[in-house]
């Protein structure tokens, strides 16, 4: 068992599945579940299925993004690019803090802000690593293209509502260029933010990220808009991140290489997993842990915990 725990970056010791361990829903929970279920045929099968699903989804997403980038190149929004090499960090056998420390070590002692680009397969811990880096690096923030896609979608939907046209018919190169010109990034009210100004709209993204930009008008149209605006959003993100980096801000940007290759930065990292099987095991354990807590209800005794894990695995395997 020690090998599995070491692979998860944990000490080679037995971890009993208690209510406290299960409720934590963290890396220790996953390690305990993998330890307990590693010889279970249903778990092995479920872990393989989970890993295959992650790889398939990543490949599908990569293909869609690549297609979006090709559309942007054809429109002249983005140039054809020779990818910049990434520094690879193998997360196998390391805790998230160890991965973060290794990454920081590559920045050098003179690092005083800039853009850090992070890529890797789902399940390699990008999100967790970013959370740790936010607490370890000075003047740190994260960047997400999501709000820019939502802002652009809001403008597109507003235009369609005002002109009585369908969203697909409105997504012309001329309209997209006009809407992108209505988005600006800079210092507003003493902090970096994105402003939407046009078509009767005048708002800051930070103040509407969880309201207007998550409303029905936006949510249902995002896939249609995102399919043809990868280039516009990537270009906007690159300019925004560069502005913040030059101002001494440490910008953490997590994404897929097809798009973040266009972000200007010498600090580029790829998280890898030398034992790819463990990605599926971790994802399977995460789902079993979450389902187990749901099934437990108010019960906390060890027998109930054990029964909930068994039932969770059984139910997930039949979905």
Descriptive keywords:
319 residues, alpha/beta, five-stranded parallel sheet, three-stranded antiparallel sheet, globular
In brief:
This protein is an alpha/beta fold and 319 residues long. 57% of the residues lie in helices and 14% in strands.
Describe this structure in words.
The protein is α/β, with parallel strands linked by helices and 319 residues long. Strand 5 (191-198) and strand 6 (201-204) form a beta hairpin. Helix 3 (27-37) crosses helix 15 (277-296), helix 4 packs across helix 16 and helix 5 packs across helix 6 (126-136). The chain has 16 helices and eight strands. The two termini are 29 Å apart. It has helices at 2-7, 19-24, 27-37, 41-75, 96-107, 126-136, 146-163, 167-170, 173-180, 205-208, 216-219, 222-227, 230-246, 257-260, 277-296, 302-317, and strands at residues 87-90, 114-120, 140-143, 183-188, 191-198, 201-204, 250-254, 267-272. The longest helix has 35 residues, at 41-75. The model has no long low-confidence stretch (mean pLDDT 89). The protein has a five-stranded parallel β-sheet.
Please specify the SSE layout and strand pairing:
Layout: H1 2-7, H2 19-24, H3 27-37, H4 41-75, E1 87-90, H5 96-107, E2 114-120, H6 126-136, E3 140-143, H7 146-163, H8 167-170, H9 173-180, E4 183-188, E5 191-198, E6 201-204, H10 205-208, H11 216-219, H12 222-227, H13 230-246, E7 250-254, H14 257-260, E8 267-272, H15 277-296, H16 302-317
Parallel strand pairs: 1-8, 2-7, 2-8, 3-7
Antiparallel strand pairs: 4-5, 5-6
Helix pairs in contact: 3-15, 4-15, 4-16, 5-6, 15-16
């Amino acid at each position: 068992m020690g090998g599995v725990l070491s692979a998860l970056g944990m000490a080679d010791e037995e971890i009993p599945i208690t209510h406290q361990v299960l409720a934590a829903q963290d890396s220790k929970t996953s390690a305990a579940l993998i330890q307990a279920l590693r010889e279970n045929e249903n778990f092995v099968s479920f872990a393989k299925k989970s890993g295959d699903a992650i790889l398939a989804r990543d490949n599908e997403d990569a293909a869609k993004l690549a297609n979006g980038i090709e559309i942007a190149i054809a429109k002249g929004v983005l140039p054809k690019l020779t990818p910049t090499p990434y520094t690879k960090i193998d997360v196998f056998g390391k805790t998230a803090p160890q991965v973060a420390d290794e990454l920081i070590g590559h920045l050098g002692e003179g690092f005083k802000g800039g853009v850090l680009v992070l890529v890797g397969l789902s399940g390699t811990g990008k999100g967790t690593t970013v959370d740790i880096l936010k607490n370890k690096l000075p003047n740190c923030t994260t960047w997400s293209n999501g709000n820019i896609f939502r802002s652009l979608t809001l403008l597109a939907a507003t235009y369609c509502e005002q002109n009585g046209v369908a969203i697909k018919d409105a997504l012309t190169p001329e309209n997209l260029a006009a809407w992108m010109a209505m988005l600006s990034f800079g210092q507003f009210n003493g902090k970096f933010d994105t402003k939407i100004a046009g078509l009767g709209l005048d708002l800051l993204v930070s103040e509407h990220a969880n309201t207007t930009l998550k409303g029905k008008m936006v949510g249902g149209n995002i896939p249609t808009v995102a399919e043809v605006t990868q280039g516009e959003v990537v270009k906007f993100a690159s300019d925004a991140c560069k502005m913040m980096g030059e101002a001494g801000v440490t910008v953490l940007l997590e994404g897929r290489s097809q798009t973040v290759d266009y972000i200007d930065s010498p600090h580029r990292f790829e998280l890898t997993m030398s034992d790819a099987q463990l990605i599926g095991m971790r994802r399977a354990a995460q789902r079993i842990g979450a389902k187990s807590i749901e099934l437990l209800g108010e019960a906390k005794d060890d027998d109930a915990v054990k029964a909930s894990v068994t039932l969770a695995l059984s139910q997930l395997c039949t979905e």
